UniProtKB/TrEMBL annotation:
Localization in the cell: Cell membrane
Species in which this protein is naturally found: Tetragenococcus muriaticus 3MR10-3
Domain of life, source organism: Bacteria
Protein name, as recorded: Permease component of an ABC superfamily antimicrobial peptide transporter
Pfam families cross-referenced by the UniProt entry: FtsX
Membrane topology designation: Multi-pass membrane protein
Length: 598
């Protein structure tokens, strides 16, 4: 009988439960996607040069697990807030507490288990789709990544099963231990919100000072080191808490003092709602702002690595294309590149020496790179190459492997012509836009390897720009892939946590909106008030998190030449996802608090 009554209640609130169930599936799917990377050792090792990447990603997995736990707690709170009156009615009708506890346990666990199973399947599909989108659209190379991972699936099922067993146990014990009257009146219990102005002012000043210290430390990581990161983490977390615990309340109180503002429409009611909520939301908003910053930072830095690939390639290569034994190479594909520079240097060799015509280098100096504090490009004439062995090494790297071990000699044109050895050509080429023409360049490089089999013995050659680009792309694409995945996962989870935190308090607001409706308040004003109230709760942590990111990017100036370049793209992605969650939250909240009046 109780099960039938419960199913009837579920049917009556199917829209709320669909959103809850969908949110749990998304949580399970995202957790699976992250685990499919965090547990894939072959993927981690083949897509990042950093030895600590595996450990860092496992720590990230733990952080995601904590966020998932928080998410489920708030989703669970939303579930209980909708059902506690029903359970109280069952008790009033004579149902035994043991039966109610068993009913709650089964209901919570079954919903969680089904959501986990379906979410894991969705996670497999999303992993495949996202990996293909990233590799195709971002032009990155990711190896050893499989959408399906038995290990990740097992970890996901075990983790969520334990979570929902705990949630079911907590639900069952918390409901049956409360008096019936407390369950019926739980949503009407007020929360104290009075704060002394002096305390508010001290907390506000402390919060701003702590944030300032944290931002300074992030800007001084290259000077202070690891200690700066530890101080920044502590001060920014505590500063964020004080900002929401005091600065926002202080600001709301100032706005309420303006008669022109607060007496317009329902502004006074909206400001009072925010002041009433903000203390209860302090921890949630602080957490959202911090992890929002980590998520946005991960996505921004990940995309930043993608932009660094062409720059780093350019800094470590002198020519766009190098052809050994060019006399045997078809020149048509090279001509189709419309090169801006096309030079051939003649060479002859015997068993011990490679000879070059010095006059050719005097006429067309060799492009080279020398390292000061940063890589710098220069040119060397034939005379400079002949008199400086270190400069001669720049030419040596362009030769075939079997030639690099020989002595290199610059000789006059007459002497070069008198040598009896056969002449060959070393051809160097520059194109107008390497990135736009790299596919065509790659084909010529592959043909050059076929013509010179000894090049195939070297897995990577520092003389071909295309090979350098390929190496950097393989290295940093893995980091970019991880950053993108991590950022989207964190944002989705945190936005969901904030959404369910807001929805879990919706039941207590029904009476307030009911009162406004009874005194004749227009429905359009009520909906406008809801939109503004929820907008503040979404914007506040989002804005503070974005500020954290803008200062935090200073830490990556040693890794990224332009950490702020193209920052609009990750911000746009976050804005769109955040906006979708805001719209969904407004719709659900409005349906809960106003559905009885429409």
């Amino acid at each position: 009988m109780l099960l039938k009554l419960s199913l009837t209640g579920l049917k009556g609130r199917w829209r709320d439960y669909v959103v809850l169930f969908s949110g749990l599936m998304i949580a399970a799917g995202i957790f699976y996607m992250f685990q499919s990377m965090a547990s894939n050792d072959a993927f981690l090792l083949s897509n990042s040069p950093v030895a600590m990447t595996g450990i860092i990603f496992q720590l990230g997995s733990v952080l995601l697990g904590i966020i998932t736990l928080v998410y489920i707690l708030y989703a669970n709170s939303f579930l209980m807030s909708m059902q506690q009156k029903d359970y109280a009615m069952f008790m009033m009708l004579g149902a035994k507490q043991r039966k109610i506890a068993l009913l709650i346990f089964i209901e919570t666990f079954i919903i969680g288990l089904l959501a986990t199973l379906l979410g894991s399947l969705i996670g497999v599909g999303l992993s495949s789709i996202v990996s293909k989108l990233l590799t195709n659209q971002l032009d990155i190379q990711v190896t050893n990544f499989s959408a399906f991972s038995a290990k990740a699936l097992l970890v996901t099922l075990i983790f969520f099963t334990i979570l929902f067993l705990l949630a079911a146990t907590i639900n069952a014990s918390s409901i049956v231990r409360k008096p019936i009257l407390s369950l019926l009146k739980a949503n009407e219990t007020p929360t104290a919100s009075r704060r002394k102005p002096v305390v508010l002012a001290l907390e506000a000043i402390s919060g701003l000072v702590l944030l300032g210290i944290g931002y300074y430390m992030m800007n001084s990581v290259d000077k202070i080191g690891l200690l700066a990161l530890i101080i920044a983490l502590f001060t920014i977390v505590l500063g964020s808490y004080f900002v929401f615990h005091s600065v926002m309340i202080f600001g709301l109180n100032l706005l309420k003092r303006s008669d022109k503002l607060r007496l317009k429409n329902l502004n006074n009611f909206t400001l009072s709602q925010l002041s009433f909520r903000i203390q209860d939301y302090t921890k949630m908003l602080s957490m959202v702002s911090i992890i929002f910053a980590l998520a946005l930072g991960a996505l921004t830095v990940g995309l930043g690595f993608h932009k660094e690939i062409p720059k780093m390639t350019e800094q470590t290569s002198t020519y766009d294309l190098l052809i050994n034994n060019a006399q045997d190479t078809d020149q048509k594909p090279i001509e189709e590149l419309n090169p801006t520079l096309d030079i051939s240097y003649q060479l002859k060799e015997d068993e011990n020496t490679v000879y070059f015509n010095q006059e050719q280098f005097d006429k067309e100096p060799l492009n080279a790179i020398y390292y000061d504090t940063t890589p710098k490009k220069t040119t060397y004439s034939g005379e400079e190459l002949a008199n400086d062995e270190a400069k001669m090494d720049s030419l040596r790297t362009l030769l075939l492997p079997e030639q690099q071990g020989k002595e290199i000699s610059m000789v006059a044109a007459d002497e070069f012509n008198e040598l009896n050895q056969a002449s060959s050509r070393l051809q160097v080429v520059q194109v107008k836009d390497f990135m736009a023409q790299k596919d065509a360049v790659g084909k010529i490089v592959a043909e050059n390897v076929k013509q010179n089999p000894s090049l195939a013995q070297d897995q990577f050659s520092m003389n071909q720009k295309y090979d350098i680009y390929t190496l950097y792309n393989e290295i940093f694409s893995g980091l970019e892939f991880m950053g993108f995945f991590l950022g989207i996962a964190f944002l989705t989870m945190l936005a969901s946590c904030l959404m369910f935190k807001i929805l879990s308090g919706a039941a207590s607001d029904v009476a307030r909106y009911d009162m406004l409706n009874k005194i004749g308040t227009r429905m359009s004003l009520l909906k406008k008030s809801i939109r503004r109230e929820i907008m503040v709760l979404f914007l506040a942590p989002g804005i503070l998190g974005a500020i954290h990111v803008l200062f935090g990017l200073k830490m990556f100036t040693s890794l990224l030449s332009e950490p702020y370049a193209g920052i609009w793209l990750p911000f746009l992605i976050f804005f769109i996802l955040y906006l979708l969650y805001y719209i969904l939250t407004v719709w659900l909240y409005t349906d809960i608090v106003l559905k009885r009046k429409e």
